[in-house]
Write a structure and sequence with these properties.
80% of the residues lie in helices and 0% in strands. It is mainly alpha-helical.
Length: 108
């Protein structure tokens, strides 16, 4: 599972790194990881409130370089259990975001 998440992060980060100057690469990695974490949080929030997965997949830009990574994050979020208690939902959302962000920054 962790290997799959690393692949997801790579899909998001490599296009940005390839176009960044050496001095800006570290900042580009963090900015990209923030975007990836934001998307992960939104994906898990949608999962926890009951948004259907097919609607989210339809909303993705299939021509985007981030399409594959976005789809993998959605699949990962929707493979998690849905909770009814607001406090548990908040914890699950926060942990999912943190997990994705940590993997992102650890690999660059």
């Amino acid at each position: 599972m962790k290997k799959m998440l690393i692949v997801i992060v790579l899909i998001f980060v490599f296009p940005i790194l390839s176009s960044a100057e050496d001095s800006n690469k570290k900042e580009a990695v963090f900015e990209t990881c923030f975007v990836v974490a934001d998307f992960a949080e939104a994906a898990m929030t949608a999962r926890q409130v009951g948004v259907s997965l097919d609607k989210l997949v339809k909303s993705l830009d299939r021509d985007s370089v981030a399409f594959d990574g976005s789809l993998e994050i959605l699949k990962k979020a929707y493979s998690q259990q849905r909770y009814m208690t607001p406090l548990v939902r908040e914890r699950v959302i926060r942990e999912f975001r943190n997990q994705i962000f940590l993997i992102c920054i650890q690999n660059f």
